[in-house]
Amino acid sequence: MPADEMAGRIITPYECLLTKSVNNIEHVESESMQGLGIVRIHLQPGADVRTAMAQLTSVAQTVIKQMPPGTAAPLILNHDVSTVPIIQLAVSGEGMSEQQLFDLAQVQVQPQLVTVPGASVPFPSGGRQRQYQVDLDPTALAAHGLSATDVAAAIAVQNQNNPSGFVKIGAFQYAVRLNSAPSTVVDLNALPVKVVDGSTIYMRDVAHVRDGSAPQTNVVHVDGKRSVSITVLKNGANSTLSIIQGVKDALPRVLAGLPAALKLTPVGDQSLFVRAAVDGVVREGVLAAALTSLMILLFLGSWRSTLIICLSIPLAVMSAVALLYLTGQTLNVMTLGGLALAVGILVDEGTVTIENINWHLEQGKPTIDAILDGAAQIVQPAFVSMLCICIVFVPMFFLPGVAGFLFVPMALAIVFAVASSFVLSRTVVPMLARFLLKPPASGTGDVHLAGGGDHALTRFQHAFEYRFERLRASYGDVLARVLERPWRFMGIFMALVIASLALTPFAGEVFFPDVDSGQLKIHVRTPAGTRIEETARTFAAIEQRISTLLTDPITSITDNIGLPVSSINATYDNSGTVGPQDGDILITLGDGHRATAELTALLREALPREFAGVQFAFLPADITSQILNAGAPAPIHVLVRGKKLPANEAFARKMMHALRAVPGLVDLRIQEPAGYPQLNVDVDRSRVAQYGMTEQDVTGSVASLLAGTIQTAPVYLLNPDNGVSYPVVAQATDYAFPLLDALAQVPVASATGDTAILGGLGRVYRGNSRSVVSHYDIQPAINIYGAVQGRDLGAVARDVQVVIDDTGKQAPKGSTVSLTGQATVMNTAFHGLGWGVVGAIVLIYLLVMVNFQSLMDPLVIIAGLPAAVAGVVWTLFLTGTPWSVPALTGVLMCMGLATANSVLVISFAREQLALHGDAVRAALEAGTVRFRPVLMTALAMMLGMLPMALGLGEGAEQNAPLGRAVIGGLLAATAATLLLVPAVFAVVHRRSRADAASIQDASHV
Question: For helices 596-610 and 532-549, what crossing angle results, to 10°?
Fold first, then answer.
């Protein structure tokens, strides 16, 4: 059925009915292609998918009765954005045909792979679908006065599979079996079709029956050879690595009972990239822990204290992993990235505890008393600091859609790790301190100079402590000058912060950093209506040219051309294939290749120039980008919808012409190609009636001959060799109609035996139709897709929106134009995180207010938070890193850490203010005394983030903005904590001498 007929007669009624029966629909999309329709129902966040599935099932049972005869019942699938291809298996075998490969893949291989937990394995792609083919001869049919309808009727009446019952003879009961259905190709060839004038016409007289395959609509090549591919999709909560490993482990068992020549070769293996990315994150975490430990050793000067802190890191990580497991999370790039991000914080918890214990040891207390007093004194401030860090991630749990799907696991990992570290610093760290820490050597009075001896470490530590004290003294002098004129300093500092924030738009915006997965995916579209054999030849030439253009090592080149044989595969496809003119090429690169962005730019420029009339679009090949696109083939999606489809098509072409002027916008194309070739047959019903026929006779004869009898009269034959039933389909061969005149000679017969030819009953002429008809919320829609190159997504999206605003005024009346896709999802996520930052500040204020029982001191503490944002802005601007969700996550992390350090300073300042009532003196003392722990905390976090910020290794690009944001934000936030916060405290409490006694004594932190 043509695409427009599918849309009007099948899809639109179904869409109308489901909108009246299914609850919580966000929007409905559909695509109607040749004989196939796909409807995607997007539900509101939080909707019950099981209820929606039940409602859809009831609708499907109702609507089928309203469909044209032969329409298959709707197939309902549960689908989400994470259901993406993670590996393909190329099925090949020396000396085996495409039909044999497809049959083995479908019957033997695929059923065994679905047992792998988390794997969704649809039908195989490529090859030839096995069926008993009845190749009709139109000339022989006409010569015998028959039509394809007669053959279909003969097959149906001669193939009866009804039970015959049993008889009882003597002492036994016998089952009766009739040869009611043919069992071999020979039997099918010998079937009588019709008796004409006493002469029996057999099947072999008008057709040739063979064990063959349906006309091929899907072709797959692996490294230039015809093949069959089995795509494995990620489904459910199982990790990508576990699914792929499960598939690989199952291959020996699958191959055990199959022909020795059959091979199953993994291609497009996403686990290689994921494993490399995971290993990279693990290396970053280990390196961060090592660097942080060295820094702690440098500051503490005690290998015993350093050992205690180092032991607490893996314990906290293991506790966080256990909590992640209990909440249904897996170890992936996001959760491991969160754990790596938390390393610096884990060090901070243990360091503060050890430092406080050491301070009490310096006061001459026994070891146990020092441990008990030191641990008890910092419980409240440490708990508040921990809550400040955790509370900033609360907004991430409310991120909608894809952003929440990706970043909630990271937030959980950080929160679990920080909470575990707090518990360990209250339990395990004091226990280890009991056995490892010793009082300072007699006469030193300083744990940092303890250790005795004259070895190199001691001398180095003495030198470091000497220089550090000089640095502290210099800082004290600077802070004293700041406190002399605090208003002036505050004004200059805040002016710099505000000026820095003005750089925010210049950094650019992307939803998620581009990652180099080592794969290139290209969607290729030849002129509309190109037969699949010609498309395959064009693909072969393109792949050959790619091999010469790319001098980099190539592991494999795989293509998938045309529509798959199963609607399940078409539903999961997100590349935009709508017919035999479309296909995808997947290039897997070897080690040592250049950046995929560079190779993409090279091919994007060369291929369209060398293959005129062929359209190329470079699709995301990595899992993350596919998920972010949420099923769309490109990040930029302009949607034109309205009732006037022809007018909208013309307007969409005008819109696309205007969009070509947008810098950085590439791969522009309209998803719905125009000019699909069509042969129109205008039947003269009066003439048909004169022949004693009806339109039903004409339709039945033509449809049975061209489309086959599988829809109107499905018949199956059981293969005794493998126990599988295959369809028996009567149909003309692909080469039966080389010319238009041959179609006019198609025989048409009536139920009474009258015959005629199609050309005598009407006119056959050429025309055009649509390859696909798209709907959005039932309205006809035109989809314009585009990708981004050389600019950030945010800038391109803004320019696209300007074009939409300008050109949209010329849209047909009743039509709307909107920008959707990843760009809008990004804006929604950024908007949510932006409010999340504001919400985090408010939550921090409320938390500190409750802790300090003060309205002003929390304002003092959060006064330094804008500086953290300014530091992030400068870092992103100077490193050329655009804003992204990871970068905004870094902002949240900086706020938590900056708050914790400010709490450290203000707590001590309040304690000193309560002692002597001088706010300036209290601020100065707090800054100089807390200089070491604040610097240690900031340096620990920055050193921990350094490996991540460098972005080395595969997949490291996705977390690099996070590391850079944390480093830059902490640099500025630490300066604010040590200078701005004491100045604000001094100003706020300048008149507080009379009230100093009312401030509660603060614990030493």
Answer: 130
